[in-house]
Amino acid sequence: MTDVMNSLAYLHGKPTATGKLKVKPEHFFVSETLDFTPAGHGEHFLVRIRKIGENTKYVANELAKACGVKSRDVSWAGLKDRHAVTEQWFSVHLPGQPDPDLSEFVAEHEGVDAILETARHDKKMRPGDLIGNHFKLVITDFDGDDAIEARLADIREKGVPNYFGSQRFGRNGNNVTSARDWGQDKFRVRDKSKRSFYLSAARSFLFNQVLSERIGKDLCHSVMLGDLLINANEETILVEDIDSAIEKLIAGDWQISGPMTGDNALPTQQDAQAFEQAIVDTEPHLLAVIRSNRMRHERRPLLLSPENMVWVREGDMLTIEFSLPAGCFATAVMREIIEESNDGEFDAHSDQ
């Protein structure tokens, strides 16, 4: 893990168990679930592909060639990790054309394991068209005592911090460093993809800092006056009465949110706004980038609850399955379970 992640607070305490994740791509399986049902007709050809050891953009480009279209005519709902086995959907714009012949596509591409499903749809697939992803992760060389069972049960019941994972920040946090330099006018960023990476890293970094500080001050489960609660539909409620807010949290439909900082003032008020503002103000150069690019303020839940979480321990191997909503990272779950002992990094997310 990078220093960007290592400095963040743990909700369940720093884990004492160690292990290796993603020793093989087969040890990290991800399958996405769309947030719509294909219409069965339309000018967009949808194809669900299982890939091994290849990134999303490479497969998309190869799919474009096989379908005789340009790369910009192929889209996806979420980027998927290269060092994994992933099942994901692609959308190919083929107006007035029949379904393409992909009978040789698997044989011609070593990293493409199977064509799982095809369909037609009347709209282009766009980033974020996901309910979420299901993960099956295998930890090898697992070294931990019997306390791991209680820890896993606690995580299943109480959740984990909804941190953005290290891949959001680039290798060694370089996207954050570049965003700071950009904010000091050390260089100009004309490339749209780089602008997107740096802006995303800046906002994600600030969210992580606010969340980590709340955990450190034991405020992750406690509401403050002026907090904003958020529900699954991304509706928000301002906390003006602590007791009524606690009732909403207990009911389970609402969660405490943190800032995805924008160019406007923080929408929280009173104690919560003062708390958040003090933290984001420590990064003036990141704020400069966010404000100069007119980013819209958004909110994100502080906690993440892995759904349908189950695990099996067999000797020095621990296998864990769970599902996450779109935009949430498996890293956030795994960093609360083990201290990763690989030489490299592990990270995968239920992508936007």
Summarize the entry for a quick read.
The chain has helices spanning 3-6, 56-67, 105-108, 147-158, 174-183, 192-216, 242-251, 270-280, 284-292, 330-334, and strands at 18-21, 28-34, 44-52, 74-76, 85-93, 112-121, 130-143, 160-161, 228-230, 236-238, 255-260, 298-301, 303-304, 307-314, 317-325, 328-329, 339-340, 349-350. By secondary structure, it is of the alpha+beta class. Belongs to the pseudouridine synthase TruD family.
Which SSEs are present, and which pair or pack?
Blueprint: H1 3-6, E1 18-21, E2 28-34, E3 44-52, H2 56-67, E4 74-76, E5 85-93, H3 105-108, E6 112-121, E7 130-143, H4 147-158, E8 160-161, H5 174-183, H6 192-216, E9 228-230, E10 236-238, H7 242-251, E11 255-260, H8 270-280, H9 284-292, E12 298-301, E13 303-304, E14 307-314, E15 317-325, E16 328-329, H10 330-334, E17 339-340, E18 349-350
Parallel strand pairs: 1-17, 2-5
Antiparallel strand pairs: 1-7, 2-7, 3-5, 3-6, 4-5, 7-15, 8-13, 9-10, 9-11, 11-12, 14-15, 16-18
Organism: Enterovibrio qingdaonensis
Keywords: Isomerase, tRNA processing
Protein name: tRNA pseudouridine synthase D
